[in-house]
């Protein structure tokens, strides 16, 4: 004996059926089974309680069809959003390539830098020092945000790029690791956003090589030569990276909020 077929009712259909419906009202006013899905909850409940197997089946099919239609609409909207993000990503990549290809890390003014800056512990003194630091004041700021933050992750693979970069680099006079390069890249991204008004991934996805070049310059800075303590030499570059990060990070975040 063949067992009766069992219809699998989706969660949407179950919820809808539990809400309700009315057979008499529908039979009097509708020519299309699809209209069943538009009935009120009370009308659906009446159909559910009527004992009419055909009406129950038609209501179920209408609910499932409505659920499928809603799913299709949501999928289309999601595809539209994804397509828009793909366009935004391509545009940001093009702007970023143009900006970073022409950026010269040697243009950063280090004349006012000294590793002793890291010894300033007072928050107010440190902030005043960073506000006047040459590496934070040697470029012109944009007057407004031209491109707001991107709707996708700018830096999902940045640490991978830094790790691969460091594998091929010789040791510097001062210790440099991934976190240090990451802080320098954040400094460069903040600097670029403030300068261009572009807060998108165009300026935030900084090539790791630029962070390394800045670290290399600092590692050979005259003030590094007077650091004799072994522990201090191990931590000097981290302190410098924190200084550079702190010099522009807060300003850049506030600036980009305007977009």
Automatic annotation (TrEMBL):
<feature type="coiled-coil region">
    <location>
        <begin position="59"/>
        <end position="93"/>
    </location>
</feature>
<feature type="signal peptide">
    <location>
        <begin position="1"/>
        <end position="20"/>
    </location>
</feature>
<keyword id="KW-0175">Coiled coil</keyword>
<protein>
    <submittedName>
        <fullName>Uncharacterized protein</fullName>
    </submittedName>
</protein>
<keyword id="KW-0732">Signal</keyword>
């Amino acid at each position: 004996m063949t067992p009766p077929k069992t219809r699998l009712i989706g969660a949407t259909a179950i919820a809808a059926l539990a809400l309700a419906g009315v057979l008499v009202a529908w039979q009097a006013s509708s020519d299309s089974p699809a209209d069943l899905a538009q009935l009120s909850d009370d009308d659906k409940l009446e159909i559910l309680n009527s004992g009419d197997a055909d009406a129950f089946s038609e209501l179920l099919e209408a609910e499932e069809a409505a659920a499928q239609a809603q799913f299709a609409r949501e999928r289309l909207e999601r595809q539209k959003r994804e397509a828009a993000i793909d366009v935004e990503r391509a545009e940001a990549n093009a702007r970023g390539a143009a900006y970073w290809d022409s950026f010269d890390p040697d243009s950063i003014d280090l004349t006012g830098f000294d590793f002793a800056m890291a010894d300033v512990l007072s928050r107010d003194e440190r902030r005043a020092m960073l506000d006047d630091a040459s590496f934070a004041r040697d470029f012109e700021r944009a007057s407004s945000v031209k491109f707001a933050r991107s709707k996708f992750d700018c830096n999902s693979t940045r640490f991978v790029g830094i790790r691969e970069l460091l594998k091929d680099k010789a040791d510097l006079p001062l210790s440099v690791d991934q976190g240090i390069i990451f802080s320098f890249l954040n400094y460069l991204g903040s600097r670029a956003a403030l300068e261009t008004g572009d807060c998108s991934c165009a300026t935030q996805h900084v090539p790791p090589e630029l962070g390394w070049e800045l670290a290399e310059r600092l590692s050979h800075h005259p003030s590094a030569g007077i650091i004799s303590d072994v522990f201090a030499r191990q931590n000097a570059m981290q302190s410098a990276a924190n200084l550079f990060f702190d010099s522009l990070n807060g300003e850049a975040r506030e600036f980009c909020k305007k977009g």
